[in-house]
Amino acid sequence: MDDPSKEDSPRVLKVLEALKQASHELQAHPRQDFDEPNSSAIKALLELETESDTILSKDPNLSSLSQHLSSLKTLIETLQKCRRHLSLSSFLTRHSISRVAGSIESEIQAWIDRESVESLTRALRGPKGNEDEDELVRLLTLFEDRLSEGFNRELQDLVLKSKVFSLLESILSDPDYSKRVREHSAFAIGALIRFNKDVFVGQVLMGPTIRALITMASPHSMKVLCSLIRSIKSPLVDMIESNGEIPKIISFLNCQDVQIQVVAMDCILEIGYFGRKEAIDAMLEEGLIKKLVELQRSELGCDLIELGQYKNDKENREVSVEVVGKKGENRERRFLESHPFASCVARFAVQLEVGEGLRQREKRAFKQQILASVREASASDAEAATMVAEILWGSSP
């Protein structure tokens, strides 16, 4: 039988959001609010305390909140009686009000988190039909936004208890769901890794997430893959290589969709930075350098060194265009957006040079291999000379 209190959830949420906002303002501006008994935060809390009595009494999870609100009302009344007197008692009362307001905000957020995770879990376990797709996407977006606020142990416990990660992974891997829902599930998985990599990384490494992202082959799924590589680093690249996924990623450089080509290039650069010898070997064996030479030669590429705009920023592990002037940053961004494969051969070589996955002797050997491949793939001696110069200019002396 359904819980009758669930019918009041929208009303409860509205009251709790107002209480949370008032509590937050009370903590953010304590002196101003305490010295003004008619301040908006204090008035809101006192009015909502009266209104919330009947609402909160229906939910056992909100019993502590009712007690905190009652305590807060008593403390505010005590302070207002002696507000003209500066005393130790007045100071301690102000401190207690801030502490109770903080507890109110925490209790409310915990309730909202419980409701949100329960709603998301029910939706993820629901039917695959499209009639509730908008609602599912809304819940996934709210969940991702909440995770982006930073680590919270209570929220993590809720997620683990509800097995949200497994549900997200199941939807991501199921082609019967729409591409939109699967992509939002991928965003949520990425958010969980950023929320607490140590807890959720094992599920990524052992489960079907990476294969599903690559199989989906959309710009959004590949962006999530890039973010996971940046977060998990070499262990994830090792898994990608051992599962034979690198050839698939390289093949996206031949895709007709430019967005997928660009994001695939980003993934290749991340793999180059974090990959060990086996991963780099796998990329070069797929003819990566030849493909990069062709992309750099295309309308979407160029040789920055020939434009006199070549810059190697090793701290940010990138090769980019250098534009001087008042609007230089905007011009640089626009230039690179219109030429996403500018100096892409040198960019890849720099990733290997400054990356974390290779030993020094391996870096030297791969640089020589890349130089040889560039000369072989170039259409002319002049083209080869330009690309070789960019690689050498971007490498350590």
Q: Helix and strand layout, with pairings?
A:
Blueprint lengths: L8 H20 L1 H6 L4 H17 L6 H19 L6 H37 L8 H15 L5 H10 L1 H9 L6 H17 L1 H10 L2 H8 L2 H14 L1 H9 L3 H6 L6 H17 L2 H9 L2 H10 L12 E4 L4 E4 L6 H11 L5 H11 L5 H18 L3 H14 L3
Antiparallel strand pairs: 1-2
Helix pairs in contact: 1-3, 1-5, 3-4, 4-5, 5-6, 5-7, 5-8, 6-9, 8-9, 9-10, 9-12, 11-12, 12-15, 15-19, 17-20, 19-20, 19-21, 20-21
Supply the key terms.
397 residues, mainly alpha, 3 domains, two-stranded antiparallel sheet, 72% helix, elongated, disordered N terminus
Description:
The chain has helices at residues 9-28, 30-35, 40-56, 63-81, 88-124, 133-147, 153-162, 164-172, 179-195, 197-206, 209-216, 219-232, 234-242, 246-251, 258-274, 277-285, 288-297, 328-338, 344-354, 360-377, 381-394, and strands spanning 310-313, 318-321. With 397 residues, it is mostly helical. The chain folds into 3 domains: 4-113; 129-232; 245-397, no CATH class. A two-stranded antiparallel ribbon has the order 1-2. A hairpin with a 4-residue loop joins strand 1 (310-313) and strand 2 (318-321). Helix 5 (88-124) packs parallel to helix 7 and helix 9 runs parallel beside helix 12 (219-232).
